Amino acid sequence: MKCWLIVAAVALLVIPSLVAFGSSEVFHVTLDGSINPASKDFIVSAISQAEAQGGSLFVIELNTPGGLEESMRDIVMAELASTVPIVVFVGPAGARAASAGVLLTLAADVAAMAPGTNIGAAHPVNLISGGESTDKTMTEKITNDAVAFAKSVAQERGRNVEWAEKAVRESSSLTANEALDQGVIDLIADDFSDLLQRLDGYVLPDGRVLHTAGVPIKEIRPTVRERLLEHLADPNIVYILFILGLVGLIYEFFHPGIGLGLVVGVISLVLASLGLQVLPVNIVGVILILFGSGLMVLEAFTPAHGMLILGGVVSLLIGSFTLFNIHNRAIGLSWETIILVVGTMTALFVFVISKALLIQRKPPAIGTSSLIGLRGVAKTSINPEGTLFVNGEYWKARSLEGRISPGENVTVVGMEGRTLLVRRARQASSSSKVSHTTGREKG
Q1: pTM
Q2: Strand 187-188 and strand 110-113: pairing?
């Protein structure tokens, strides 16, 4: 009698938990893109959410060209430590689990692929530059470390250890059917719905039975912040924003005043800084880009027959190619983007400087004394010196009666060298001379 009471008591404790395991939600996330710090944070956070809410299953729908090793290892560790069964589904048709995606698939409790997908090519790239012997030594160390990690993950999940090593050493790749035949994955499903049908009643190696029929699906989507960081984890976007920010500030430097250049430049640099925080950045590359931009600006003030422009282009190119420590072309900064951005930036500077040289060589159309008596507008604060726009030209000005705020009308009352002496404009008659609003800039 006591035995039956004990059995009944155990059943009352166990059965509700089994029912809960079989009827709670299936969590579903999509990882479509590179594996980077932003996508890593999203996946790891989603797994933690599924554990906290007692999910019965966590499905990662995967399509990736690969990604950063540290981000991949963090996701793999979260998969192996998860109390909720993890399913990695390489899909839909046409998707791939390349490079770091191989390890994410191997680390799942259940690995599945859709027809028309592929998995493999996990060979690590050379991260060290230098002499040939150093390169070979470091490449061998990196490869051996990656092989050991892949084999340990495959062994932990009971998958094909030999192929895991080949995927790293030889960049071996498999179709969905080949992966199933060689014990790399567990099943093939047409789509997510078909996957859930095939998983219903599936027995995990540890004895747990999955129940997915009629279970509600909870889609976990990235927040606005996570989406922004995901876009800013693209080296091409971050690089363009960085250069655009520099160009905006340079434009504002040549055209003083709080205007479009300052707004665009500051916003672009702020967004670029967010991306630079989540990507592996080489500080030498940043310095070289800044140095190259500085040389181009210097050419405008110290004409060197194009030598500074040439040095700036070389510095920009070297800095751009070394900006990110990402050597996988599929997820790194493309050389097409570098050539396009540097070429456009160079063309703009050459155009601006050539126009400036033409203006400098052009004989003055009127005497400078004719500016006396004209009215102009303060473009910056004149306290006591600043920039004045008068007669369609920018001039250096000095106030004779205290600070003059930007936008105030002033009258030219004299000259000191190439500096105009100004006072606040008084109410004048209609016959007073007024400056034009277009023209060229003089130094």
Answers
A1: 0.67
A2: parallel
